[in-house]
Design goal:
Oligomer: single chain
Subcellular location: Cytoplasm
Number of strands: 5
Helix content: over 70%
Subunit structure: Component of the eukaryotic translation initiation factor 3 (eIF-3) complex.
Biased composition (Pro residues): 918-934
Distance between the termini: 133 Å
Main location: cytoplasm
InterPro entries: EIF3A, eIF3a_PCI_TPR-like, PCI_dom
Length: 963
Amino acid sequence: MATFAKPENALKRAEELINVGQKQDALQALHDLITSKRHRAWQKTLERIMFKYIELCVDMRRGRYAKDGLIQYRIVCQQVNVTSLEEVIKHFMHLSTERAEMARSQAQALEEALDVDDLEADKRPEDLMLSYVSGEKGKDRSDRELVTPWFKFLWETYRTVLEILRNNSKLEALYAMTAHRAFQFCKQYKRTTEFRRLCEIIRNHLANLNKYRDQRDRPDLSAPESLQLYLDTRFEQLKIATELELWQEAFRSVEDIHGLMCMVKKTPKPSLMVVYYAKLTEIFWVSGSHLYHAYAWFKLFSLQKSFNKNLNQKDLQLIASSVVLAALSVSPYDSTRGASHLELEHEKERNLRMANLIGFIIDPKLESREVLSRSSLLAELATKGVMSCVNQEVKDLYNLLEHEFLPLDLASKVQPLLTKISKLGGKLSSASSVPEVHLSQYIPALEKLATLRLLQQVSHVYQTMKIESLSKMIPFFDFLTVEKISVNAVKNGFIAMKVDHMKGVVLFGNSGLESDGMRDHLMIFAESLNKARGMIFPPSKKESKLGEMLPGLAEVVEKEHKRLLARKSIIEKRKEEQERQLLEMEREEEAKRLKLQKITEEAEQRRLASEFEQRKNQRILREIEERELEEAQALLQEADKRGKKKGKKPLIEGEKVTKQSLMELALSEQLRERQEMEKKLQKLAKTMDYLERAKREEASPLIEAAFQHRLVEERMLHEHEQQQEIELSRQGHDGDLQEKNRLSRMLNHKIQFQEMVVNRRRAEYDRLRADREERLNQILHQRRQEREYQRKIIFYVRMEEERLRRLHEEEEARKREEAERRRKEEAERKVKLDEIAEKQRQRERELEEKERIRRESLLGRSTDGLSRSSDLPGGSRPIEPAAVAPAAAAAAATAAPAPTPGKYVPRFRRGAETAVQAPPPAQAPPPAQAPPPHDSWRSGGSGSSSGARPTWSSTRGLRTSER
């Protein structure tokens, strides 16, 4: 067993061994390191070593080594770094899967390579011998040699990983993922035996998990995440079992799911329960348990209707029709009638298990046939509103088979309905969890039910009927099948009939005292006698009031029943609300507990990591000191043994001799010994050289003599073999001459045959060459025509492109000319408009000048009037706003500069602009008008008379002047 001071040394040693082709030694070295108790503290180097170790195990298909290494590495990583173990296991499964797929692809490539081109030699001799001896084909042998070992190793990988992760609470997701991948492996390659073993392994893991509850890292099934992972694994197991048609294993998977739900006392999600009941319908249908198949469909319908809000009406109708048809397919009589007590007990236990699986709790003291029966199921379907959702054909079929009495026309009316129903079904929408529904599977059972109903109704009407007439009434089966069906019905007491083949008739009814008809007649006769006795001998006591209360008792009982039902529904709602509140409280407490546990675990991990680092550093320092101490003691012991040092033995930590000086002394002693050893070796090598030279000098004449003797022997052997070869050649030549003489008689025939074959082949060759030349000429002519056609098409396309380009250029030129012409017209129009505007402005300036002169004349007259009114008493001067405004307007018009020729001023703004503008200070009054003598009065009186309103005459005069 190899020991390494550091893990890195083991990794380097393994890589060196791998490079020289010694993989087994490299694997053993890494295995010794991993299983060693010296390296039990996790570090990153150990993870790299595990990756290399896993690669070697997969490459050499050593599953036992891989399992041992993973178990040891789990011990190292369990409390420190579980993520590293998860990465190693994922790498292990990835490599195993990749190598298995590679082997499978290589086998397929090898099978394709065996298809040779030569049809006359499609089988090699060794292949024929192997096929006759072993009885296997090439693909079977290649699979057995290449694919099977890797698939075995992959299966062993899955088992190893599941065994390592079976009770690890921190790697539950990896355990579930491995189980799912193992299920997919069994499904992909149709491995039914391995699937059964895998289911048993997972079942045993869960049983051990419940058995040993005191384990340290045991998963907690009460946690929602853990429960969901285990349920997902079981549901995947159920799906794969049904797809592989392993119905017994599927039933055991259903029992596992039910046991897990009972164990944790929590119901899974509705989506998972839909899958659960959908698979139960398949299992019960295959097993022939039609009653439980119908109950499972009823549960599935209730779940879909309650929780699937996206389900459309068509899908709901199909599911409801499946429920009703499944209920109708149940046999109308009890098949356990007349069974023994042991069989009844066994049937009762079986019914209890089945009822628990589909969610019905049955009291074991009661008879389960009374609780779960065909009649109770049909009554429940009617009360729960299932009949209102089914198709019209299914509803009509239900009424015909359960409520109508048509002994002669029942089969003829049922047959078209069954034909229509057989065409219904198919895939449901994506909103449904059920993939597809097929109603045609119920047709044989419904035909059997229709036959039984017809026989039952006919037995109430007829006592005797011909076999031909009865066969015509039942179009589904021949009379032999009808007879078999009727035998089972008579055996279980459903109908009473006999078949007389000698007379060709069927006899209905039974004359015995235990028959139903005789019992009815006796009961009617007893009631009649009781009434007659009451009339002859009337009772002496008074009649009780019970007779008066009986008519209203039914109504009272009905009201009380309704009240109790309402109270029961209220209590159930309260219980559900209370359970929901308790569930919410439990969920909140669980979340708080998980959060607190997570915080505690993180703190614990941090503490453990810090303590681990401290212990690691202390251990490293202690190991260094111990190693130095051991080396010093070893050097001191060697020095004492050689006797190189006399006197008192120095101590390691003495006063004069220290550890460093002792190590230097030992090193110098080793150097001296090495030099002496080298001198001895040189002397020994020189002695060996002389000895070897002497040996060769003595051996050279002996070697020369042996060589000469060998030459003589080989010459004699060569001459002997030459003589034998000549003799054999002479004998062969004589035999060939005799053969030639014997075959010379056929020479002419051979020449004739050769000429005939040559002529025929030459004629065939000439014909083939002529055909080939003709075919080549046709091909050349066809290609010449095609090239001519292509050239024409190219020429036409080019001409068309040239024409389009020319039209485009002409259009562009026309557009440019049109734009240039419009631009010139626009410029001319603009010049004309400017001239018109200039003339208009000139005309307006003339009009304004005239208006200004007129206003000045008016202003002059107004000032004269004001001067005349200055002699009023009290010195007050009335102000005429109408006169002042024209004067101000005239002054503003006189002082305003002429408008700019290039700027157009609207007419409605011209008066405002002239009124706003003030006269420049340097402008003198015009010579025609002297300055008014009352400027001071105007400036002084404007503030006092600003609020005065103009008179009617002044305003009228102003408006007239403006006009």
